[in-house]
Amino acid sequence: MGLILQIAWRFLLAKKRAMLMSLAGIVFGVAFFIVAQAQTSGFESFFIRAVWGTNGALKVQDKFQNNIVTSMAAGENGDFRVKLSEGRTYVEGIAHPAEVLRAVRSFSEVRGSSEVLRGRAVAKSGFREDECEVNGIRLADHLAVSDLAAQVRAGSLADFARNPQTVLIGAKLAERLSLDIGSGLILKQGGESRRYRVAAIFETGVEEFDKRRVYLDLREARGLLHEPEKSSFIQVSLDDNNRADVVAAHMQEVLQHDVRPWQKSEKTWLQVFATLRISSAITMGVIISVAALGMFNTLAIIVMERRREIAILRSMGYTRSDIVAIFVAQGMMVLAAGLVLGCLAAVAITYGIERLPIHIRGIFSADHFVVKWSLWHYVFAAVLSTVVVLIASYLPARRAAKVEPGEIIRGAS
Amino acid sequence: MTGALPQSIELLRAENLRRTLGADESKTKALRGVSLALQSGRSYAVTGPSGCGKSTLLYLLGLLDRPDEGEIFLSGKSVARADDTHRTRLRMEKIGFVFQFHFLLPEFTALENVMLPMRRLGKLAPDEMRERAETLLKNVGLAERMNRSTGHLSGGEQQRVAVARALANEPSIILADEPTGNLDERNSKMVFELLASFAHDAPRAVLVVTHNPDLAARCDEVLRMKDGLFATA
Ligand SMILES: Nc1ncnc2c1ncn2[C@@H]1O[C@H](COP(=O)(O)OP(=O)(O)OP(=O)(O)O)[C@@H](O)[C@H]1O
Ligand SMILES: [Mg+2]
Hints:
The structure holds 2 protein chains of 2 kinds.
Chain A: H1 2-14, H2 16-55, E1 58-74, E2 80-91, H3 97-105, E3 110-125, E4 128-137, H4 139-143, H5 148-151, E5 152-155, H6 157-162, E6 166-170, H7 171-176, E7 184-189, E8 192-202, H8 207-210, E9 213-217, H9 218-225, E10 233-238, H10 244-255, E11 257-261, H11 262-265, H12 267-304, H13 307-315, H14 320-354, E12 357-361, E13 365-368, H15 375-402, H16 405-412
Parallel strand pairs in A: 4-9, 6-8
Antiparallel strand pairs in A: 1-2, 1-10, 1-11, 3-4, 3-7, 3-10, 5-8, 6-9, 7-8, 12-13
Helix pairs in contact in A: 1-14, 2-12, 2-14, 2-15, 12-15, 13-16, 14-15
Chain B: E1 10-21, E2 28-39, E3 42-47, H1 54-61, E4 69-74, E5 77-78, H2 84-94, E6 95-98, H3 110-121, H4 126-139, H5 155-166, E7 173-177, H6 185-201, E8 205-209, H7 213-218, E9 221-226, E10 229-230
Parallel strand pairs in B: 3-8, 3-9, 6-7, 7-8
Antiparallel strand pairs in B: 1-2, 1-4, 4-5, 9-10
Helix pairs in contact in B: 3-4, 3-5, 4-5
Bound molecules: adenosine-5'-triphosphate and magnesium ion.
């Protein structure tokens, strides 16, 4: 093997230009592949993290009862038909939260669960009024199913925990009502009107949440919303949030409550991201194919330029597989260097993109481009480029090794 | 030097070799039914005008090309249509080939070029390979040039390296296509003597293509070619 590697190495050094060409091809392909992945999935995983951090992995909500509905309808020629259809009757909310909470906690995949009472209210400060969404929570429970602690921009959660007359308020809403830490506001609901103080302001990055949401102590919320027993839903986080759909289906059967995984509740946006991903995959596929074709071309030329040497080696007793091994080894040497440089370039470019200032205020807010750092992008790039280089160096070498050496020499002299 | 050694054996036999080269307009019947036998301990010269098919014949005998018709026997076994692995192995162990235009690997030194067949064969220890390569290069008068890259050698020097390389694995058959074409008289003689002595030291055969009548005359047998056939003596 040392002999084959030595020959490969010498051949490589002797053709610096061809080597640099193929090296450049690999570096470009690898870096492009990684960077494209990093920036395509960046916003998506940013969004998903925000959703998990705010709404948890799934929600246990309305209770349902399976029942069979019978109805009669007139057929085409006047006779009657009996139609049977299965259906479910939903009862809004969770009537016995303590019971359901206990059942939820018995699932081994569940990491945390938090009972939430949600209702609409009007928030008023100074001269301004705005609609808001009141969420009654037990703080300790809720911290286990959200990133609320990390989302606090100003103020303190400790204050909120100690004092039920305080609220946590979304950053956008606070801005609109000109509220600051310690400012007072009034929440109004169905004739009830109570005064609170802002303990902390949070920002999830998702516009929808930041401009409406207010957190309140659960017991306080029951009073404000006139809802002494029921809860709206139970928010759950899992050990592996990606399995939420599977766990949800199971829970739904056991609990006889509607269970919505994040994949379902955020379907609209996830589909937008999926579409974006497909469109960028198409662009990426085209460019990767062009890079791969270039690679095939360069390596084929490298072999072509070595036909004479191939014939000489063959005449001395080097086998067809020796020849193939020499060129595959040569390809792998360039690949190794190309992978290292390509990955380094990808890191540098991704880092640069991450610092691109952009101002997004829409479904989510960001002040710079969002990228995703994932080792898998680098692993995929390595696997893909290895496959391409393997094939691109194997095929022409095998073809050249098949020709009788005399044939080549006759053509060369 | 007519009488072959009593224990002389037939190393190679070719029967009725035919080979057409090219296609359409350039189609040429390069060999039109050539037969010959190489006995151990003997040297052979092939002469003939340019384009008569000498190189074509040597490629076939050296298992570097396949005949359209005819058979080649090495130590009594048919090899013209044998599989490539078998033929490659025979090239490595039994045949030493010198190309008409001294084909070496320019990325390697003279010494390394001579060692390439030995390393592939893998019979000797690395030290022994080096020693043998050095001896061979000294024998062709290149003691001073051993560690020079062959890209930086003159045509004649390259040709001598090619001869040394052909002898590297101690093949039983040497096929040399004008090995002295680029050499002055002194070096021609030296290379030729080396090849001839190689054949006479052990049960080996040497076949040399040459335009030089003096050298041809020194061989045990002279085969004259014309238009793809041996001229009948
Ligand atoms: N690739 C080819 N296509 C067609 N004809 C060819 C090809 N190569 C060689 N020939 C022809 O085959 C014939 C034999 O060629 P060959 O090389 O064996 O001659 P040669 O005796 O070695 O000549 P020289 O002494 O000049 O080396 C020649 O007529 C040549 O023109
Ligand atoms: Mg010739």
